[in-house]
Every structure is written in C-alpha cells, then in structure tokens.
Amino acid sequence: MPLPAYKRVVLKLSGEALAGNVGYGIDSDVITSISHQIKEIVELGVQVAIVVGGGNIWRGLAGSAKGIDRTTADYMGMLATVMNSLALQDGLERVGVPTRVQTSIEMRQVAEPYIRRKAVRHLEKNRVVIFAAGTGNPYFSTDTTAALRAAEIEAEVILMAKNKVDGIYSADPALDPNAEKYENLTYLEVLNKGLGVMDSTASSLCMDNHLPLLVFSIMEEGNIKRAIMGEKIGTIVKGE
C-alpha cells in the first residue's frame, strides 16, 4: 500500500461546511461523514490537528457591521468555533477516534487550554487535536489560527477543505462561468491577484514559514484521504 504524502497535517474546516445544505447550524450527517474521513487518515498513521471556523453560527465581521463592538463580535465568533469543535469531537469519538479540544480562551470544564507541547504529545499518541477559539485575540481569523498552529506544531501542510468550491478560481465559479481554476499558485500570486482564499495575514504567515496549502472540496467523500495520499486534487499553494 502506498504511504501517505504527509505525516502531520492541519485540517482547516469552514464553519459553513458543518452546516451542510441547510446553510446554518450543525448538520449531524455532515459531522459523521467528516469524522469517518478523518478516521481513514488517522488509521494510516497520519497525525491530524483541526481548526474549524464558526461562520455557520456567528461571524464577527457580520456582527460588527450590524453595530456590535468589533472586539465583542470577534469573541462571540470564537465561542462559535468552540461549539463546532465540541460537535466535531463528539462525532470523532463516536467513530472511535480519540480526540482532544484545546481552546485559546480558557474554559476548563469543556476543553483543555492550548499548550503547544501538550498538543504535540497528543498528536504523537495518535489523538486528533482540535484547536478552538481562534488565536484568542480579536481581529484574527481562523485562517490565521490554522497558519499559526501549523507553524507551531511543525505540520507539513494545511489542508483547507471547502464546501462550495474544489480549489482556487480566478473568480467565483458560481457567478462567473468563465472562472479559471488554478492547479498551482504561489502565495505572492494569491496576494497580488486578491484571490481571497485566505486573508493576507494568514497567507503571509504561511509564506514566511514555508507552509504549503492545499485547497480542495470536502463535499466529495474520500477527498481528505486523496489529499493525504498526494493525489492531484484541488489547488496547491506554495512559496516561490
């Protein structure tokens, strides 16, 4: 059997991906599907850390636009990621995958505080680690969290699983039928073209730390394993 292309990865899930076709809240069928896909790669010996967004419950920027203080709105968004992380932990443990949630904001009754050395130890023991509550700071996205945590735990790649697209396009393919899909990009191209796959802070962090990013669709069953095995799916972003 071919060996996985990566040994340690950060899987970035959007909050919207957990909502399924409903568009909001948490779809238990989607949680179960993602959990089974993650179990597949854990059984291959891959060490998996996860960062999940909170957009299916609350978006800090949207709340701020409606008049809520930006810092308060962002903290509310961090709490939304904790809810998603606990739902994902439950789904993973139901399929037999040992999991730990670590939060950047302390809430010891439901999760561990984020401690880098402890997170790495969990990974070495083949436990999935879910990083919740963003970086613990307002004004930073969960994309930036994924980049930061990946650098800290020395992950080999960030797998960005999308629920609406299967890679990076020159424009929104839902709005522009002529949108071109890219197979390979550099971080400078992503920034210069304003492609919006992740915010500029996250892109710069990945570029500075030589972290490759693979953007692919989560909606096709088995895609996480295909990504881990190095199959050509989605769009890969690297440094120069």
TrEMBL record:
<keyword id="KW-0963">Cytoplasm</keyword>
<keyword id="KW-0021">Allosteric enzyme</keyword>
<keyword id="KW-0067">ATP-binding</keyword>
<keyword id="KW-0808">Transferase</keyword>
<feature type="binding site">
    <location>
        <position position="163"/>
    </location>
    <ligand>
        <name>ATP</name>
    </ligand>
</feature>
<comment type="function">
    <text>Catalyzes the reversible phosphorylation of UMP to UDP.</text>
</comment>
<feature type="binding site">
    <location>
        <position position="74"/>
    </location>
    <ligand>
        <name>UMP</name>
    </ligand>
</feature>
<protein>
    <recommendedName>
        <fullName>Uridylate kinase</fullName>
        <ecNumber>2.7.4.22</ecNumber>
    </recommendedName>
</protein>
<feature type="domain" description="Aspartate/glutamate/uridylate kinase">
    <location>
        <begin position="7"/>
        <end position="217"/>
    </location>
</feature>
<feature type="binding site">
    <location>
        <position position="54"/>
    </location>
    <ligand>
        <name>UMP</name>
    </ligand>
</feature>
<dbReference type="InterPro" id="IPR011817">
    <property type="entry name" value="Uridylate_kinase"/>
</dbReference>
<dbReference type="InterPro" id="IPR036393">
    <property type="entry name" value="AceGlu_kinase-like_sf"/>
</dbReference>
<dbReference type="GO" id="GO:0033862">
    <property type="term" value="F:UMP kinase activity"/>
</dbReference>
<feature type="binding site">
    <location>
        <position position="169"/>
    </location>
    <ligand>
        <name>ATP</name>
    </ligand>
</feature>
<feature type="binding site">
    <location>
        <begin position="135"/>
        <end position="142"/>
    </location>
    <ligand>
        <name>UMP</name>
    </ligand>
</feature>
<comment type="similarity">
    <text>Belongs to the UMP kinase family.</text>
</comment>
<dbReference type="InterPro" id="IPR015963">
    <property type="entry name" value="Uridylate_kinase_bac"/>
</dbReference>
<dbReference type="GO" id="GO:0005737">
    <property type="term" value="C:cytoplasm"/>
</dbReference>
<keyword id="KW-0665">Pyrimidine biosynthesis</keyword>
<comment type="pathway">
    <text>Pyrimidine metabolism; CTP biosynthesis via de novo pathway; UDP from UMP (UMPK route): step 1/1.</text>
</comment>
<feature type="binding site">
    <location>
        <position position="55"/>
    </location>
    <ligand>
        <name>ATP</name>
    </ligand>
</feature>
<feature type="binding site">
    <location>
        <begin position="12"/>
        <end position="15"/>
    </location>
    <ligand>
        <name>ATP</name>
    </ligand>
</feature>
<keyword id="KW-0547">Nucleotide-binding</keyword>
<feature type="binding site">
    <location>
        <position position="172"/>
    </location>
    <ligand>
        <name>ATP</name>
    </ligand>
</feature>
<dbReference type="GO" id="GO:0005524">
    <property type="term" value="F:ATP binding"/>
</dbReference>
<feature type="binding site">
    <location>
        <position position="59"/>
    </location>
    <ligand>
        <name>ATP</name>
    </ligand>
</feature>
<dbReference type="GO" id="GO:0006225">
    <property type="term" value="P:UDP biosynthetic process"/>
</dbReference>
<dbReference type="Pfam" id="PF00696">
    <property type="entry name" value="AA_kinase"/>
</dbReference>
<dbReference type="InterPro" id="IPR001048">
    <property type="entry name" value="Asp/Glu/Uridylate_kinase"/>
</dbReference>
<keyword id="KW-0418">Kinase</keyword>
<comment type="subunit">
    <text>Homohexamer.</text>
</comment>
<feature type="region of interest" description="Involved in allosteric activation by GTP">
    <location>
        <begin position="20"/>
        <end position="25"/>
    </location>
</feature>
<dbReference type="GO" id="GO:0044210">
    <property type="term" value="P:'de novo' CTP biosynthetic process"/>
</dbReference>
